[in-house]
Amino acid sequence: xxxxxxxxxxxxxxxxxxxxxxxxxxxxxxxxxxxxxxxxxxxxxxxxxxxxxxxxxxxxxxxxxxxxxxxxxxxxxxxxxxxxxxxxxxxxxxxxxxxxxxxxxxxxxxxxxxxxxxxxxxxxxxxxxxxxxxxxxxxxxxxxxxxxxxxxxxxxxxxxxxxxxxxxxxxxxxxxxxxxxxxxxxxxxxxxxxxxxxxxxxxxxxxxxxxxxxxxxxxxxxxxxxxxxxxxxxxxxxxxxxxxxxxxxxxxxxxxxxxxxxxxxxxxxxxxxx
Amino acid sequence: xxxxxxxxxxxxxxxxxxxxxxxxxxxxxxxxxxxxxxxxxxxxxxxxxxxxxxxxxxxxxxxxxxxxxxxxxxxxxxxxxxxxxxxxxxxxxxxxxxxxxxxxxxxxxxxxxxxxxxxxxxxxxxxxxxxxxxxxxxxxxxxxxxxxxxxxxxxxxxxxxxxxxxxxxxxxxxxxxxxxxxxxxxxxxxxxxxxxxxxxxxxxxxxxxxxxxxxxxxxxxxxxxxxxxxxxxxxxxxxxxxxxxxxxxxxxxxxxxxxxxxxxxxxxxx
Lengths: 274, 270
Hints:
The complex is a heterodimer of chains A (274) and B (270).
Chain A (H helix, E strand, L loop, with lengths): L8 H14 L7 E12 L4 E13 L4 E5 L6 H8 L7 E6 L7 H4 L2 E4 L11 H11 L4 H14 L15 H13 L5 E5 L7 H16 L3 E6 L2 H7 L2 E6 L2 E7 H4 L6 H16 L1
Helix pairs in contact in A: 4-5, 4-6
Chain B lengths: L1 H15 L2 H23 L4 H34 L2 H6 L5 H37 L9 H28 L3 H26 L3 H5 L2 H13 L9 H6 L5 H27 L5
Helix pairs in contact in B: 1-5, 2-3, 2-5, 3-5, 3-6, 3-7, 5-6, 5-11, 6-7, 6-11, 7-9
């Protein structure tokens, strides 16, 4: 078959053109465009605005720290990303696709804030569930679970029922469950909450090792030092609005700190609004 | 399909390991032991009494399992936010409902099978002690009554799943399921009372009669599955009846699960 023949020439031309054009189009891992979300609250069903016109993107291989005070809308944003809630308006895409599809979900590893798992399952069974739901076979899950339990220091207690675990142990089991299927995008909602200093270091090390492996990490926290230590880029959210986004090196210049920046963008703006 | 299977397995394991199940099983065993004692105390219709108590124990404990374990298996996921971890996997909301229903149905079938074995044992011991009262007894009728009891419990758990798919908390689901259970068991009698030429029928307003008629077709007719009387009297159940009621149970349960899937498909988990 002559691939340079007159019949194939147009196909060859368009193929090369497609590759050329696509190399200039940046495909973001996460792209949030003008997203708003409100919830109905109480008996009167009063609407409470959780997010207002949020737009941001996260590139592949990046560690993105999502910072904001309690009730800023961080968890709502994450829940929209993992398809637990739907935006009222705006667009969200993960890997260039809308959230919720099976292809998208199988490439995400998600750790909720204050996770709660099945009481009567062991951590081993939890990972078996998490892995098999993602289409992994039993042997691969067992092998991967063993590595992860070593990593999160649960090897000795992986067969105990989860209801006997401390809060920190549940958090670590949740982290292992989020990583069992080797996801491309890891979304962690307050991953350090409930952990002792050793546990916090362990989670930090995991985030850094994920970064080395080229994974994308999107994590939320209201603890400034955590964000400062691990993030390439940060976004500061307050009262449902994105107050600032950019790389840490650009935002935190000589003489200033992330705390100063945070207080300026969150507290000062809030006071001005009042 | 993998998602449905994974959710089903986890639901079944959570249910079977639940401590409440052990409590319910102990209650069932005590009732079955009381069956043996009661048979010794009552000098007549021992066979009917033994079968009736044994089958009632199975359906009563099955009901407790549906109300206190089955409902909790979904409610806990929602109340404690375990569903966040489940739905962040490639498991759709619809698959979650089907998986939960499969797990709960498997739990009910397994529980009724175990309770049924103990019930059969209590009947067998009574039969050995008082063979003269078991002249018209048939094991087939007893097994059929147990199978139908399991089927009605599966149907009821499908109804509870429908309520759980939109109710804001587990208490509402529990109350609504109990109401459906009561209506489902009494509606048939109420309808026949109102449609007959009795005094009550003539005194009732047309609106009430119409309401009962509508309710009769909307609510599941759980009394159809109650074959305790036939089993106790050793009466044969026509094959056509068995086939139609089985079809009704499977069809109604499937329809209700489809409704639950629909209700759950747009639900948010803030």
